[in-house]
Amino acid sequence: MRFAQLVVGPAGTGKSTYCSFMEKHSQIAGAGRVCRVVNLDPAAEHFDYEPLADIRDLISVDDVLEAEDLHLGPNGALVYCWKYLLDNLEWL
């Protein structure tokens, strides 16, 4: 049986730390289970694990903030990235 967890929350609350722990735990005590992490946070800076898929490979907040023609702040850049992902779902 396959299952998934969707980990969401404000910045700095430990989402990446939790995912890192779960990945390590599944390797040690997973009884053959494989844990894969998909990053859908275009503003994430670094991980101590390699995500299976990472939205930053498609678009990142930094890409949007540096685009001179968009004139968006950090929140607008996040929304833009998620809309861009929705417009490019085949990437997943």
From TrEMBL:
Key words, A-Z: GTP-binding, Hydrolase, Nucleotide-binding
Full protein name: GPN-loop GTPase 3
Protein family per UniProt: Belongs to the GPN-loop GTPase family.
Pfam families: ATP_bind_1
UniProt organism field: Allacma fusca
Record PANTHER family: GPN-LOOP GTPASE 3 (PTHR21231:SF7), XPA-BINDING PROTEIN 1-RELATED (PTHR21231)
GO molecular function: GTP binding; GTPase activity
Function recorded in the entry: Small GTPase required for proper nuclear import of RNA polymerase II and III (RNAPII and RNAPIII). May act at an RNAP assembly step prior to nuclear import.
UniProt keyword annotation of Ribosomal protein present: no
InterPro entries in UniProt: Gpn
Subunit field text: Binds to RNA polymerase II (RNAPII).
UniProt keyword annotation of Transmembrane helix present: no
